[in-house]
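thread: overnight batch results

M.L. [08:02]
morning all. the overnight job finished for the chain we discussed friday. pasting input first so we're all looking at the same thing
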Amino acid sequence: MNYAEIKHCDIANGVGVRTTLFVSGCRLHCPDCFNEVAWDFSAGKPFDDAVADAIIESLEPGYISGLSVLGGEPMEPENQQGLVDFLERVRNRFERRGPGAKTIWMYSGHTWEQLAPGGAWNLGDVTDRILDTLDVLVDGPFIKAEHDITLRFRGSKNQRLIDVPATLESGAGIVEWVDDPVFSTHSLEE
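M.L. [08:03]
and the structure it wrote out:
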């Protein structure tokens, strides 16, 4: 797997200050994608142990809230294989709650229904292991006709912010992530 970019101190792709990994490779090719350069699977540099170690080290400071993974498309089969062990390392190093907790967010152009067990893009054990590491999945393709600049952490209205642990636990459907009330009331309308 290759990665196109790593952003440190990113505040656009999840709550708080984050380290963000942009993996290379995407077959979805959403019109007006903000990161078209990462469609090519050979773009960027190889994601190796040294890169993984550096990302984990970048997550150590207390002011870093977590890791965000974007693309390209993280849930392409090749990228799932390249990410699963790394994401488990991050989850094992940083708990979900308590002192030193970090969250893991992932953005995918595939929907929860496609990625969940039994879905067309669920590769079995590898996909399930990835989903088990995530706190929030931002799902669905970017759709220009549904673009809305007032949305937090997503580009179009069709995209959902899914609370992955709650959704997996419920077994009864999607549980959406709940934003801080101060942000959920934001509107440009008077």
